[in-house]
Design brief:
10 helices, 3-stranded mixed β-sheet, 28% strand, HSP40/DNAj peptide-binding domain, metal-binding, DnaJ_domain, elongated, 4-stranded mixed β-sheet, J_dom_sf, alpha+beta, stress response, 26% helix
């Protein structure tokens, strides 16, 4: 039994788009094949992607809520699948009715034949793209190579050799379907199936195009330059129109969907629109205060360390975080956690000065005294 898409993502049926996106990103990170090598992880990853594809699209989600998975399958994804006004476009549903009732009242053989032999939209394609941490933050152009079906230039998609053209199929008379009457104890039923001769196209090619072998399409590898918006994150999906597989019989091409996965950075960590990092300062800088340089995604920036700064203090650099997707002018912050570097060894001169200071503070000195003094200052 197919799993419920809402259960797959772990959200309620009234979840808003932001909840869906957060749930998807969490599960995509968990089950991505490059991260999770456990058996079944890849299948789970595909199921999560399919669930998000459906529920993140308002129209598809409405069909899924009404009809379940059957309402968002390839046969029901065309125009009119959301209601019962036009049964001729409902694919699998129409075939079921035709099988039992011989097409009466649901658009008979002629209408179904036209549907099957007419233009067909090409398949959508998916491409997984890994980005460096800073690429995801600032965006920019990225070149990828894809392989997809394109219309054959020699026969212009007909599949026929130059100077010839496809002929109407003699088996189905151009309808793309064949009917077979079956008698049962409950009466006679008509079974409708795809024509085995023309594979549902309604046409046959006697002299095939030498370039494409009669298919009307060729597999082509090509380079694409895509624009990555600033602020994307793992789970962001970009749609590149008309770069999927070419449609059959002059149908429109499908789309290319680019799924983004962001690599981890050795220095920075991302939390929503904020960037997190750590800054190590000496115990003297923490006590006396200092102005020190810190690395950010924008380059080196000066940061003031207030006198008496404690370990774990978080300093904020406003507007140095991640640009908000769709609004690159607005950015998050860079949050810097201060780490106090306490030396394990000090020079003789430093030790003498520290022991004097310990004496002023009334702290015990001697072996281990420096460590005890510094631990008292920093709560260690």
């Amino acid at each position: 039994m197919a799993r419920d898409y809402y259960d797959l993502l772990g959200v309620s049926r009234n979840a808003d788009p932001d909840e869906l996106k957060r749930a998807y990103r969490r599960l995509a990170r968990k089950y991505h094949p490059d991260v999770n090598k456990e058996p079944g992880a890849e299948d789970q990853f595909k199921e999560v992607n399919r669930a998000y594809e459906v529920l993140s699209d308002g129209e598809m989600r409405a069909r899924y809520d009404r009809f379940g998975e059957a309402g968002v399958g390839s046969a029901a994804a065309g125009p009119g699948a959301g209601g019962f006004q036009d049964f001729g476009d409902m694919g699998g549903f129409a075939d079921i009715f035709e099988s039992f009732f011989g097409g009466g009242g649901f658009g008979g053989t002629t209408q179904a034949g036209r549907r099957r032999s007419g233009p067909a939209r090409g398949e959508d394609l998916r491409f997984d793209l890994k980005l460096e941490f800073r690429e995801a933050i600032f965006g920019g152009e990225h070149q990828i190579r894809i392989s997809h079906l394109e219309v054959c230039n020699t026969c212009e998609g007909s599949g026929a050799k130059a100077g010839t053209k496809p002929q109407s199929c003699g088996t189905c008379q151009g309808n793309g379907q064949v009917r077979r009457m079956t008698r049962t104890p409950f009466g006679s039923f008509t079974q409708v199936s795809v024509c085995p001769t023309c594979s549902g196209t309604g046409q046959t090619v006697t002299d095939k195009c030498e370039t494409c072998g009669g298919k009307g399409q060729n597999q082509v590898s090509k380079k694409l330059k895509i624009t990555i918006p600033a602020g994307v994150d793992t789970g962001t999906r970009l749609r590149v129109s008309n770069e999927g597989d070419a449609g059959q019989r002059n149908g429109p091409a499908g789309d290319l969907y680019v799924y983004l996965f962001i690599k981890e950075d050795a220095e920075f960590r991302r939390e929503g629109s904020n960037i997190l990092s750590a800054l190590k300062v000496s115990y003297l800088q923490a006590i006396l205060g200092a102005k020190v340089p810190v690395n950010t995604v924008d380059g080196e920036e000066p940061v003031m360390i207030p006198a008496g700064t404690q370990p774990g203090t978080v300093l904020t650099l406003d507007n140095h975080g991640v640009p908000r997707l769709g609004n690159p002018v607005s950015r998050g912050d860079h949050l810097i956690t201060v780490v106090i570097d306490i030396p394990t060894r000090v020079s003789t001169e430093e030790r003498e000065l520290l022991e004097k200071l310990a004496d002023i503070k009334g702290e015990q000195a001697g072996k281990g005294g420096v460590e005890g003094f510094l631990g008292g200052i920093f709560g260690r």
